[in-house]
Design brief:
Elements (H helix, E strand, L loop, with lengths): L15 E3 L2 E3 L3 H7 L6 H6 L6 E5 L30 H16 L10 H7 L4 E4 L11 H10 L3 E6 L4 H4 L6 E5 L5 H7 L7 H13 L5 E8 L8 H11 L3 E6 L18 H12 L7 E5 L4 E5 L21 H8 L1
Parallel strand pairs: 3-4, 4-5, 5-6, 6-7, 7-8
Antiparallel strand pairs: 1-2, 2-3, 8-10, 9-10
């Protein structure tokens, strides 16, 4: 699905898109539909994988991370001439794209009918598919529009637009911290703009000021590149005062294979060991959980940090949200 009359904003043939809004079915969504397991975000944060949209409002990025599986050649971030859709149009496009992507599962013998019906009524959106979402000029309003439709939101950002993130209040805000110091940052992240490191530092202060939004710092660990100085990482994390810290192994897939070697992909045990080394300098985050299939570990505070809607026993995931039903009647 694409908008043939608008400017071509999405080049990846694997993405379905409407103008600059793109979506793709996550592998864990497929697994959940088939009863073959769920994403680690289900175990860590309560997300039901089969009811999650993976999308982005802009397939452009202002960094060139060496570990990124995407093709950097298709991610020029010059945005002159983009005809931006309003937030309501992006929400509509995201939901319709998800339904189109999942339509082939209807009648599948491996997918229970009730699970399929739930899947085409999504309750959560991960604004994380590709690009840097803060480049979309109406991002705070987009998050509000998703919430008005009864969906929870996870926003993933590289932290280069702290002034935008200050105005965003998603259900959960992820910011990537992929280096403990500026030199490593320049080598691993390869920013396309001057001042990206300073902007990331400022974003830590923005996160520390968030009272309603659950915050997560995420680090992609690359053997031989950024798996050092756990005390420096801990000091950086402390500045943001996050609810969670998520450490995940680099995966040797996609276009990253042309930049890194398979030996740069840490084993799960290496991820856990490095996480424990950070915990020694981050005493307030004294809970460690891990998921070997995803090679990921999470550090958390001991106190309760669940968003009420995302608790396992919450009725949020059952049926449709009344706000969504009312919106369709208007």
């Amino acid at each position: 699905m694409s908008d043939a009359d608008g400017p071509k904003q999405v080049d990846d043939p694997d993405y379905h898109n409407v103008n600059h809004t793109a979506a793709q079915t996550c592998g864990w969504t497929k697994n959940a539909l088939n009863g073959e397991g769920t994403c680690y975000k289900h175990a860590f944060y309560g997300i039901r994988s089969h009811r999650c949209i993976q999308m982005t409002p802009v397939v452009k990025c202002n960094e060139r991370c060496v570990f990124c599986w995407r093709d950097h050649a298709g991610h020029a971030y010059e945005l002159d001439g983009v005809e931006w859709d309003d937030p309501e149009a992006v929400v509509d496009a995201s939901i319709e794209l998800q339904r189109t992507l999942l339509s082939g599962y209807k009648g599948n013998d491996n997918v229970p009918e009730d699970r399929f019906e739930e899947a085409i009524e999504p309750r959560h959106v991960a604004i994380s598919l590709d690009g840097e979402p803060t480049l979309y000029p109406y991002l705070p309003e987009l998050i509000e529009a998703f919430h008005d439709r009864g969906l929870t939101t996870f926003l993933v950002s590289n932290g280069t637009r702290p002034e935008v993130l200050a105005e965003c209040d998603p259900t959960q805000l992820y910011v990537s911290v992929d280096a403990p110091d500026r030199w490593t940052f320049d080598q691993v992240v390869k920013p396309m703009e001057d001042g990206a490191w300073e902007s990331l530092v400022d974003t830590m202060d923005v996160l520390a000021a968030k009272d309603e939004t659950r915050t997560v710092l995420r680090t992609t660990l690359i053997e031989g590149h950024n798996m050092r100085d756990p005390d420096w990482y801990a000091a950086f994390y402390q500045r943001a005062d996050p609810d969670f810290v998520e450490l995940k192994a680099y995966m040797h897939v996609g276009h990253s294979r042309g930049r890194l070697d398979r030996s740069n992909m840490p084993e799960h045990e290496d991820v856990v060991d490095f996480s424990e080394a950070i915990m020694k300098h981050l005493p307030e985050h004294d809970v460690l959980r891990d998921r070997p299939p995803s090679r990921v570990a999470m550090l958390a505070r001991e106190e309760e940090t669940w968003v009420p809607e995302l608790r396992a026993e919450s009725s949020f995931w059952e049926g449709r949200h009344p706000q969504a039903a009312r919106a369709e009647q208007l």
